Amino acid sequence: MKSGKSVKEAFDLSGRVAIITGGAGLLGVKHGEAVAEMGGIPVLLDLNGDAASNRAAGLSETYGGPALGLGCDITSPEQLTEARDRIIENFGGIHILINNAANNPKMENREDKNFSRLENFPLDIWNQDIAVGLSGAFLCAQVFGSHMAEAGQGAILNVASDLGLIAPDQRLYRQDGIADDKQPVKPVTYSVVKSGLIGLTRYLATYWADCGVRANAIAPGGVHTDQDDVFVQRLSNLIPMGRMADQDEYKAAVAFLVSDASSYMTGSVLAMDGGRTCW
């Protein structure tokens, strides 16, 4: 917290514009809520522009401040540049970038093979997942982060995962009555993307340290939504707190990491996983 500010003032985001990629998704909207609750201006970028606009309208209605939803393919430098220019035209600047977007491919059996498994994992799916989750974050940092560096201030938050710190426990996904070579698993790209985001975080933190731009990552655990009871119990058994996260439990951490409350924190990874990575 910068000298002279109260704790309450340090968390204040009034007037700050926060870009959130994957903004129409579950956690993207929650990140937007965190920004809006602290007085900031959430800008939701999503491949689904209509969904982004609807979610932004909901944020504006709930919190009473401006919000914007834009359709944007974050793997396209041209579309990111257009989005940057429109955001600056609308709000005068960009102060926060939350790299949240990621693919969540539905890996189905094809030709009697489970394509989530490493031996069968398709190169095209690998390329798509890396393009969105990792290359997209790099491009957003390049386009939006450069603007913040030129302005002399900004905060970047990369949304990693506990699986960027530890390997997936593939026992969580086992199904009865299926041969070992056809058992579903967490795809390799998830771990690679989330680990890569941690490396990108440290690179950006040191690269722009003298430009007033901080970069940190959050490594959240799984959020309890509509998973089946067997999976939830298996995962809960791996977590010291004995449960998955609630949908709202990351909001305060996000507000901390993108505000002046974390002004002397950069290049760090905040593990918020109920203690799972302690074991």
What is the fold-level CATH name, i.e. the topology?
Answer: Rossmann fold
Helix content estimate: 40-55%
Q: At CATH's second level, what is the architecture?
A: 3-Layer(aba) Sandwich
Radius of gyration: 19 Å
Q: What would you call the shape?
A: globular
Unreliably modeled segments: none
Total count of strands: 9
Q: Total domains, how many?
A: 1
Q: Walk across the major sheet and give the strand order.
A: 3-2-1-4-7-8-9
- Secondary-structure element series: HEHEHEHEEEHEHEHHE
Largest sheet: number of strands, sense, barrel closure: 7 strands, parallel
Q: In DSSP terms, counting alpha (H) and pi (I) runs of 4 or more, how many helices?
A: 8
**Which CATH class is shown?**
Alpha Beta
Class inferred from helices and paired strands: alpha/beta
Strand coverage percent:
5-15%
Beginning-to-end CA distance, first to last residue: 32 Å
How would you characterize the overall build of this protein?
With 279 residues, the protein is α/β, with parallel strands linked by helices. The chain has a single domain (7-278), classed as NAD(P)-binding Rossmann-like Domain (Rossmann fold, 3-Layer(aba) Sandwich), CATH 3.40.50. Helix content is 40%, strand content 15%. The strands form two sheets. A seven-stranded parallel beta sheet has the order 3-2-1-4-7-8-9, sandwiched between helices. A two-stranded antiparallel ribbon has the order 5-6. The protein is globular, with a radius of gyration of 19 Å. The model has no long low-confidence stretch (mean pLDDT 96).
